[in-house]
Every structure is written in C-alpha cells, then in structure tokens.
Amino acid sequence: VGIADKHQFQAETQKLLHIVAESLYTEREVFIRELVSNASDAIEKARHMQLTNQQIMNDDVPFEIRIGTDEDKKTLIIQDTGVGMNKEELIRNLGRIGYSGSGDFIKKLGENPDKASIIGQFGVGFYSCFMVGHTIKVYSKSAAPGSTGYLWESDGSGSYTISEADGVSRGTKIVIHLKPNSYEYAKKATVETVIKKYSNFVGFPIVLNGTPVNTIRPLWTLSKSSITEEEHKQFYQFISKSYDTPTYRIHFSTDTPLSIRSLFYIPSQHVEKYGMGRMEPGVALFSRKVMIQQKAKGLLPEWMRFVRGVVDSEDIPLNLSREHLQDNGLIQRISAVLVKRILKHLQDESKRDPSRFETFMNEFGGFFKEGVITDFKWKDEISKLLRFESTAELPPTEDLKPRTTTTLEEYVSRMKPEQTHIYYITVPSKSVALTSPYYEPFKAKGIEVFMLYNTLDDFVFSNIGHFGDKKIVSVESKEAEEFLAANQEKQTDTLDQAEVSAFLQWVSDAVGNKIAMAKTTSRAISQPAIVVDHESATFRRMMKMMDPSKQ
Ligand code: ADP
Ligand code: MG
Predict the structure, then answer these.
(1) What is the reported pTM?
(2) Does the entry feature the keyword Acyltransferase, yes or no (predicted)?
C-alpha cells in the first residue's frame, strides 16, 4: 500500500461543501437516498458493461447494495458491487462538482438568495454525506479487469487524500463516521425507515445488516402484461396504506416530449365523506425509481387528491427541493399530461361500463364538482364526467342494471329539435320536482330537466355555464320563459286586451312592491299564477347568504 496523496478540493467544491454541510436539504436524511441512488447508478453501469459483453471483474459477485449500521463505532456503511472508480475517476468525480460549469454554478448560488432552487438544477449528490459525517472514507475498485483498489478520505474541510488500499472488492464502499448530532443514522431502524421511504423501488436488492429491505417491484416501470392482479393489489395497498381494492387503474408511459412512467389507482372509497378532514395528495414523485417527494403537491390538481399512485420522470433532477416542486414549470407540464390522460381514461370508463361508473361517481362525484368550480383549465373535460338525476326515463345499461343519473352529453342527445338550452330545476327532492309548476310546461312538451337537490349542484351548473354550444339555464330563468313563450300552443284568448290590462293592474296593486311587474304567461298550466325571477336561482341564494336579514 502506497503513501496517501494529498489533494485540495477545487475552490468551487470547497465552497459547495461548506454550503452542504450547513444543510441545504430540508431533511438531512436524504443523504441516504443520494448514496443509494449513486450505488444503483454504478450497478446499472456495471450491468450495462456485462450486457454489452465487456469484461468486468469478479463477474460472479451479485449486483446488490449492502448497508451496515454500527452503533458502537458510530458508522454507516453503504457498499455497492457496481463499476467502481479508479484513481483518476475518484479525483474527477469526488474532488470537484461533477459538471463542467461549476464556477457559474457557485456564482449563481452567491447571487441568488434562493439557493435550494439552484442546487436543484445541478445536484450535490455525493457531498450530501458531509451533512452527517465528520469523516468520509470511500473504498473503490473499478470493474475494469486488473484494477487496483483505492481509499479516498476527507473530513470535508478543504482537502482529501487518496491511497492504494488492499482487500477492496469490485465497486464502492462508503464509510461515514457520523457527527454527534447524527448518531441516529448508526441505528438500523432509522436507516431502514429512510430506505423504505425513498429507495424502496431501487432496482437492485438493498440488504441492510444482512436482510433485504426493498421487496416490492416498481410496477410503474414494468410492462403491463408482466404484472399480476395480486401484485397490483399489494402495490396499491402498500403505496396508499389502505386495504380496499381500487376501482380503476391507469398505467401509462410517454417518452416525448417528456419521459413519464406512471401508475395511478382510483380507490373504491374515500374518507372525506366521514368528515375526517381534507385528504393529502396521494401521488408520489420519483425520478428513476428513487423517490423525490411522497405526497407531491402540484403534480395533480388539488381536487384530484383522491387519486393514489406514482409518477416517475427522468427529467426531474433528483434533488429538486420540495419547496420548489410546485412552482416548477416542468412539474406543470407533466401535470398537464397526467390530468389529460386520467380524465380521458375516466371518460372511456364511463362509456364502457356506465353503471360501474355511476357507483364510482356516487362516491367521488363531490371531488369532480369541486374540480368544475376550482379548475378552470379542465372545467369542460370534467363536466363531461358529471352525472345528475333527470326527469327522463333512463334506459337500463347493457347488462340491464338500472341507472339513476345521466350526463350532459346524454341529455343533449335526447334534446327536442326545437330545444336550444339545457334545463335544470333546483328542488329539495325528486317528488317536489315532478309536481313543480315550473317543471309542468316542460313536462307537457316532453322536455327533459335535470333535477338538482342542493345549492352546490346549482352552483356547479352555473359554473359549467355551457355544454358545447348549449347554454345551461334554470327552468326559472328568463331564457326558459322566452323559450316557452316562443313555443306555446295556439290558444283561444278568452279576455280582450283591455280586460287583460285591467286585471294585471289589479294584481300589481294588490301585491304591491313585492313584485317588479305582472304579466301574462304561457308557463302556468294547472296553476293560476306563478312567480318567476330573472336572476339565476344561485345568484338569489348567494344574495340571501350574504344578507342575514333575508334568511
Ligand atoms: P451525480 O450522481 O448527479 O453525478 P454525485 O455527486 O452523486 O452526482 O456523484 C458524482 C459522481 O461520482 C457520479 O456521477 C459518479 O461518477 C461518481 N460516483 C458517486 N458514487 C459512486 C459509486 N457508488 N460508484 C461509482 N461511482 C460513483
Ligand atoms: Mg448522485
């Protein structure tokens, strides 16, 4: 074994080490994620060599990541059987920031108070272990046949040494001598929790103190046909920490313009209806099977918080910090692709099996209504999925199951030729709707009317506003009144003009300022008179809500 060479870190690297040691990452535990993903990358490279018929050293040694904790020695060891590094590679890769424009990088860091976002664009991977370690030893041996083993060692303060070392096997072994404030990482339980959190799906076995920890296959990266139903169920229950069977599954990948591997599950039930409070987002963000954020915000819109699953994109830098995910342009672009695919899938499902979809909507419809109100971008697509009761006799589904709700699209397909609007009535119950004087003239003409039973639905309808070129209006609206007047049956008037005027005058005087005006109408059929209001019912209710004296 030769004498240790002493090397200075590049000036920029020294500054960076300082920043890292002061803990840029919001959670220090991510150093484990960084080292495990480096180990996985190194094994991937070795496997690639093997697959392309290049010789690797000790090719009988299995590809795996071995992690060992030692509470007495206060050390954490992470070892892989990957490509390893020779002396030049140790100097090049660990002696400086591994990218050409490092000077610019530091300059940007200096100028920008928002350091985490800059770091996110580059990456400090390996150096993150200086957050927890006072001394780091890296034993490495390149996979190239005939290589020598080396020990790289540093206390992170300005220099490092490299010396030849005996007994080093193929790959890299990193020994972290923990700082007193980081002794927890010498505990098996702590390390295991962190591995399960971030690195559960790394493609090679992770063996912690002799036992494999990552036993679940990363289903989203596999081909659909290679996954069994049972595996899906287990995976879903694992990621969602629940015990139901999901209603729908959406598994898709894209390569351009973005690389996305995703797998979503839509549960069969949710807890918000029990008043358990607002659910957190249920989709985790990964980059190459390594978790970036567990409950990723901004990946799907808020109203889709009931969706569980995984999104993996190689385009996402591994250490993009949490705070900056949400307003990241890349995330927004990924989100647009995801939302479109999920909505499309649900639209297909609603046609493929309407009664199943109806059951689903009975449980989850509230989220979609929230979507119509809050998510302007997807409002039109969401409104295609909504289902409401209507006065039409709905044909049973193909498998003869009865249906109680219908979509706007189906409604439009049943519209009368003379009909230009979509009508709804807001009532406390179906029986009230069917006997309502407002519905009566529509019923007489055989025109279907949606029945809404609460203020939320009323608000949802006024938010949708239009479906295609059809305006959605209340049966109490001015548009409804005009439609009925234009389409009334010829009647033989029994009063002459003068008598009508005199009568209307009498009504006005009798009712006083409670009404704006009295006029003849074609809409009252079995009722002598009817009150109409040309503002929307929602508007009236909102006014009422704002003015307590009217409640
Ligand atoms: P990144 O992984 O983004 O390149 P890191 O700081 O995590 O940045 O690692 C720097 C470089 O060091 C890697 O690109 C790789 O070449 C080398 N390296 C780090 N860990 C290992 C390892 N376990 N085995 C082989 N090479 C490694
Ligand atoms: Mg790395």
Answers:
(1) 0.71
(2) no
